[in-house]
Amino acid sequence: MPNIPIQNLWFLMLYASEYLHQNLTDQFQLEQMDGLEALIGKVFSQHLSDYIHQHLRKQLKAKSKELAVVKGKIDFYQTEIRQSLAKGRVYCSYNETTYNTNRHAYMMSALELILTFDLSTTVRKQLMKDQFELKSYGVIANSKYRLDRDHFSSFEHVCKHVIHLSKLIHDMKLLSTETGDSIQPKLMLTNEKIRKIFEKGIAGFFKLNLDKGKYRFISEQGSKVDLDLENPYGGVYKCFPHMYLDMMIQTKSKDFGLIIDTKFTDMLKNERNGKRQISSEYIRQIYTYTMSYKIADPDSHYAGMLLYPLVDENFEMSVKMLGVPLYFYTVDLSQKIPDIHRQLIKMIDVIFEELKLPKSVPQFVESMA
């Protein structure tokens, strides 16, 4: 069984990134991403150069230091414990204008990382030029930056683009450091970080690549499923588990919908009888999700799908269970990126074509490669 190329995990990481969800994607040839490093390097170079030449400004940075003259506010506690007065000095806290801010240091750190990637000569030269320019402003690389604690004004959109790309580059480098150029399938399925990349990456892929003239993508990640609970007694409502949905795809007319739940595990489990079976827990789960929508909107047609990662083989199975069409699909992560792209798009088109047929789903269909 082949290993999963790190490029394919980067592919999912790109779709999971904030950058791609907040920007127009025409700079990315998203269906031709074999040269993913070069592609990200090119876009990063464009945004960084734009930021340096048009938006780079000195910013206030909080500093604390022992000084011979008072600047800003005196920190009496630090002055006392450091015995600064005995040296004819005071410990002060003040703001200083500088180019060496946390944001710029994080950009510089990402720039140094991406120069280790496989880049074109033109992009590499431009990035090295930007690196020299940032150094001339006194910017020192530092990866200790928390994006979730930062706030960008509406005028800082270019800076925000560069920061989001910088985070993507740091995440890519960290993942490749942990796994190398490829990762074993069994190891992949035990890695919690990769599980989150898969789930968020698949949602991002469908959101950005589905034909918007045909489909509506609804990300319900983190939203509770309405289970239409009635007659709660004895405190059962407090003890009843909540169910959360990953995503849903609808036709533009909203007549047909597909509820998708990604499962980052082996699709078929070995049972005691020696058979390989789909988890009954997951089947009940996706059935419940789908029925909740069918009950809420009886005039529309809904189906459910469990989507798994797999390597070197492919499953496309479907069944109608108690009147609910259910699909069990896998995506082969050992393929080349353009093949993964085509497979994901094709599976959605095929499922909706079947849903629109009078007999929407065959009793049981399986194809293995």
From TrEMBL:
Pfam families for this protein: McrBC
Protein name: Uncharacterized protein
Organism: Acinetobacter cumulans
